[in-house]
Amino acid sequence: MKDAFGAPQSLLILGGTSEIGLATARRLIARRTRTVWLAGRPSPALESAAAELRGRGAYVRTVDFDALDTESHETGLGKIFTEGDIDMVLLAFGIPGDQERDEEEPLSAVRVAQTNYTGAVSAGLVCAGALQAQGHGSLVVLSSVAGERARRADFIYGSSKAGLDAFAQGLGDALYGTGVHVMVVRPGLVRPATAPPGSGAAASGAPLAMIPFTRTPLVTTPDAVADAIVTGLRRRSETVWVPGALRAVMSALRHVPRPLFRRLPV
């Protein structure tokens, strides 16, 4: 259950090495979250992330999780909930893919779609069912502004996020009134924490240097997304845009006629 300060006492991150997921965990640990599960493929990075969070005072456990192995989700994730209530699940896994390669290699495109959408649907439903059974909890789903309207530069990744976003919204409606809160988070271009301005990979899957909004306030960071998640949890928001200005930007872009949209540098 949440403590007197409104912070979840237990957290499950699906995508245990996600920069956004770990930034969120750090903030929640500082706000009295005490148990953290990191779910991901076994790797030194996963163990390193667990060790770092333990150093911040949390009880941290790792669990094997593969988004593509959907047949294992019900059993693997279900076991976590048998060990105690989970107050918050953060669905933070996903891959950007490589648009140029994926167009030429359909199996690569399928991997993007299966990871970002099919895997998320499977894991999301398993966790939602467990949260509903315990009668409380929050499911936070990392979507992306890329899912708001297909762009030539990343329509394979964007279409997978569009499907995820629609799924999460519908799931939130299905769970309304059950005690389970679903929050969809739509970050803009996320600059990795280790990347200098104007370089590195963005959440859209395209290099930041190739995107016109790179040097504007519409680019965000894992820390900024984490802050927005914590604020959204406190407010019990259903949709969170990061940065907030993206709400107005995408509202306008959604209504641009396609012939004109094709010519925009987005």
How would you sum up this structure, described in words?
The chain is α/β, with parallel strands linked by helices. It is 43% helix and 16% strand. It has 9 helices and 9 strands. The protein has helices spanning 19-30, 44-54, 73-82, 99-104, 106-134, 155-175, 222-235, 246-253, 258-261, and strands spanning 10-14, 35-40, 59-64, 88-91, 137-142, 180-187, 189-190, 219-220, 239-242. The strands form 2 sheets. A 7-stranded parallel β-sheet has the order 3-2-1-4-5-6-9, with helices on both faces. Strands 7-8 form a two-stranded parallel ribbon. Helix 1 crosses helix 7 and helix 3 runs parallel beside helix 5. The longest helix has 29 residues, at 106-134. The chain is globular, with a radius of gyration of 18 Å. Mean pLDDT is 89; it is low at 195-215. This is Decaprenylphospho-beta-D-erythro-pentofuranosid-2-ulose 2-reductase. InterPro entries: NAD(P)-bd_dom_sf, Sc_DH/Rdtase_CS, SDR_fam. Keywords: Oxidoreductase. Its EC number is 1.1.1.333. It comes from Streptomyces poriferorum.
